[in-house]
Amino acid sequence: MYKHLKFAFLFLITFTQTIAFAAKVDTVETFSISMHKTIKAVVVTPDAYSKLKTLPVVYLLHGAGGSYKNWIDNVPEIKNIVDQYQMMVVCADGNVTSWYFDSPVDTNWKYETYVSTELVSWIDQHYKTIKDRTGRAITGLSMGGHGALYLAFKHQDVFGAAGSTSGGVDFRPFPKNWKIAEKLGPEDQNQDVWDKNTVTNMTGLLTPGKLALIIDCGTEDFFYKVNTEFHDKLLAQKIPHDFIVRPGMHNWAYWSNSIRYQLLFMHNYFVAQK
């Protein structure tokens, strides 16, 4: 009898663990008026969504070469975190190498407008969101880390918190990489444009304490140096922020660990706004 009870107990634990988190993952189609095209996104809502009045949203951006599916495909545990914190996560699509700019040289690329305005508006219209900056945060990896800070710095009326993991917070040391020159023009001919659009030069837009900020990077990452320099600049300008470094490279092993801390930071921000 003991063996049967033990088996039943273990089965109950396993079954409970299986059904404990039942966040819903949807792929939605949004329309960008500025780019005249349909763009997909992943929307993750908690199991208790129907019972909740409104929810905060974290917008999650992918890196160069990626797509809207990257985060949920590579870090499915995000569903558990969404249930745990009773928030929504929206994985936006920034095309392969948009860098989330409104390109000054290619009018077909308006991913700043899309993510910060069109996508946010679409999500607010179709879901029970907190329709205020106090209920919105944005973060991302690599190109998406730069994009998240770039969009938050320029649109502080939209986002109340922002993060970056392994972010390309200063891409000027890499003028030939990731097709940035196709979006901003060649660096040697457009230095002012490159200077203006790299996040490390945008700290003048910040008011100490207005944006909640978290930045992290692995010590073996090729973006490690520009992140530490960015951190030092924020310190010099007395901009409060969390800055985390730990051993790690520019890969999913690092990001799948990092996102837990990023989303905890965003959750704490949302709770503090209530």
Overview of this protein structure:
The protein is α/β, with parallel strands linked by helices and 274 residues long. Helices cover 39% and strands 18% of the residues. The chain is built from nine helices and eight strands. The chain has an eight-stranded mixed beta sheet with strand order 1-2-4-3-5-6-7-8, with helices on both faces. The radius of gyration is 20 Å and the shape is globular. The model is unreliable at 1-19 (pLDDT under 50).
Q: Strands of the largest sheet, in order across it?
A: 1-2-4-3-5-6-7-8
- Largest sheet entry: 8 strands, mixed
User: How widely separated are the two ends?
Assistant: 51 Å
In percent terms, what proportion of residues is strand? 15-25%
**Structural class based on helices, strands and sheet pairing:** alpha/beta
Number of helices: 9
What is the overall pLDDT average?
Answer: 92
Radius of gyration from the CA trace?
20 Å
Helical amount among residues, as a percent range?
Answer: 25-40%
SSE arrangement, N to C: HEEEHHEHEHEHHEHEH
Low-confidence stretches: 1-19
Q: How many runs of DSSP E, i.e. beta strands?
A: 8
Quaternary assembly = single chain
What spatial form do the alpha-carbon principal axes imply? globular
Q: Gist?
A:
This protein has 274 residues and is α/β, with parallel strands linked by helices.
